[in-house]
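Lab manual, section 2.4: Encoding a predicted structure.

Procedure: take the sequence of the chain (74 residues), apply the prediction step described in section 2.3, and record the output as C-alpha cells. A sample record is shown.
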Amino acid sequence: MEKDILKELVKFQFPSGVLDYFELVSVKQEDGKLLLQLDELPVKPIERKDKNLESKGFLPSVHLEDFPIREHSV
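Recorded output:
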C-alpha cells in the first residue's frame, strides 16, 4: 500500500511513461536531499515488441539533480 502511494506521488515528479520502464526502489532523505532510486525494468518498448532484442546489460547508475521540493534538494 505504502509503495503504491509513493509511486503515485513520483508520477508527478517524473515525465510520463518513466515508471513504465523503471521501478521505484527506495525513497530516503539524506543531507537535506530527497533521494529517489529507480531501477530499470527488463521491458521491451511497445514499438519494438515484434523485434528480437538482446540485452547487453545496463549502464552505470546516474545521479540527476532537479528543482527543490518544499526546501529540499532532489
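Check your result against the sample. The two ends are 24 Å apart (CA to CA).
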